[in-house]
Structures are given as C-alpha cells and as structure tokens.
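Thread: "does anyone have the structure for this chain?"

Original post by V.I.:
We have the sequence but no experimental structure in hand. Need at least a predicted one for the grant figures.
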Amino acid sequence: MSNKRTIGMWLYKNGGGDAIAQKIIKKLKERDIQTLDNINLRHAVAKNRNIVHNDIKLNKLDLFFSYNAGEQTVYQTYLYQALNRLIPMINSYDAFQLTEDKFQTSFILRNAGVNTADYRLFHRDDAQDNLHKTLKKWSGMVYKPTNGWGGAGLSKIENEENLQALIPTLNHGNTREVFVERFIKYDNTDFRVDIVDGQFVGCYGRKAGGNDWRTNVTSGGSVFMRECNDDVLNVAINASKACGTDIAGVDIIFDQEKEEYVVLEVNGIPAFATPEQEKMGLNFNNKKIDLIVDLIDRKTKK
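Reply from O.Q.:
Generated one for you, tokens below.
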C-alpha cells in the first residue's frame, strides 16, 4: 500500500445499497481516500501474518467498513474479529458482537442507566422451573433467541399453555441459554433512530401489522413518518454510546405502564432508507453518508 489512504468496504447491494456505496466512494475520493469495494471476508484467506482478498493484504488497509447484515457467515465474522486486532473497523468487532446478542446488549444498557425491558437469562437445564416463576411474576413475557434478528424466533408467552408449547423447542435446540423479556404494554409502534458518530441522522416509525405485536418489517410491520422528540433522541444517543457503536439504529418503544421510553434493540447495521422509503419522505441518506465519510476520514488520519 502507498501513503495514500485506502479502505476496504463491504456494503449490502439490495434496497438501494449499490447506489449508496457509489456515493460513499465518490465522497471519499474527494478527500483523497481510495475505496476497495465489495470485499466479502467470506472469500478471504489468512496466510501467516496476512489476510488476503483478491491479492490485497487487508491488514495493510487503513480501515475496513463492514455493513452487510444479510450475507454474514460464521467464517466472515471470524476474520472480522482477527482483522480488527490490527486495523480500525466500522463498527468495531466488539460493538458488532455486542449488538448481535440481545442479552449482552440489554446487560450493558441497563448497567449504563438506559431503560430496557426487564429480562431474565437462565441456563437451559434450569429454565423450566424459572420460566414458570417468571411467568407468575410478569403475567406475560417474550422468549427471544439471543442472536436472532428481524423478529425471527420470538414467542409471546401469556399463559401456561404457551409455556408448555415452548419447552420442547428449548430442549431440542443447540442453545444453552434461555432469554426472556417482560412483555411491555405499548401502542404497537416503535421509533427507529439512526445515530452515526454520536449524532442524530434520522428517525422513522414502524407499526405492527394486523393482530401481530412485532413491529419488524420482516414480520409484517410497516414504516411510517415519525418525528423524534428530545427524550427519544437522548435514549438513542446514550444507547449507542453504551454499546460503543460508530453507527447504530436504536429501536425504542413507550412503556405505557411504567411511562418511560425503553430500548428494545440496538442494530449495528441499520439500513439506509430504500428508494421507496425516500419517496415517502425519509430523506436522511445524504446526511448519513456525510457523517460516515467524516467518520472514516477522522479514523484514517495519519
């Protein structure tokens, strides 16, 4: 590598991602930063002290920008971890790993003074008795795989019948831990707040579809325009900071019983607005791109 700054990038291509990548590359070039695009660590090879992709020694780059949730593999994240021991990453591997795990995220947030749903984590072998006790205490709870996304694998437990239906799944799964959250009474809408480098990027809402209680678009939820108030913004910024994320999409709901805003999830790879969402009025993409370019510029200063 020359003295010129060079970064690697792996950004999703669907939903307008390809056009976003080109805008980032163009703006980085204006700052004399070269971008090697579409570097999927799944296809990289480690050779002694180097991690190589298409004859490029990735550990010699000035930074790697990994932003693709849909195509992650175990191998890719394994090299992500190794590479981040030598060069800056956005997000860092530690922040990425944390936000991929719902329990670890909730644990860190609660200890940082950020409201989350009340939760319990049990070893699978101790789960049945503990789940019965927890259900009596809360009257309703949600079982969540610690590393799921998009609402997949969630089960709402409101009675003993629901609980008995869940037990066989727990007993036959590979996981050793069982994570549940108290079911929060809310209006079936949430706030998705995008934060880059500690700064507000944009906000929109999501509403659960039909009789469902999950707001995730992949679970039938829909996106709508929504303003971000100061309380929601402060919660989002504090959550992103607690998790150590350079980029975060923070999902927040209003607990109607406790009358407080609660973080449901911190997403380390929040999508840019799609072309369809931009037509609705979600116009934060350019601001997000500018903040990411500023962030890369600062992190690669020599």
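V.I.: this helps a lot. The chain has three domains: 5-90, 118-182, 186-291.
O.Q.: and The chain is about 35% helix and 25% strand.
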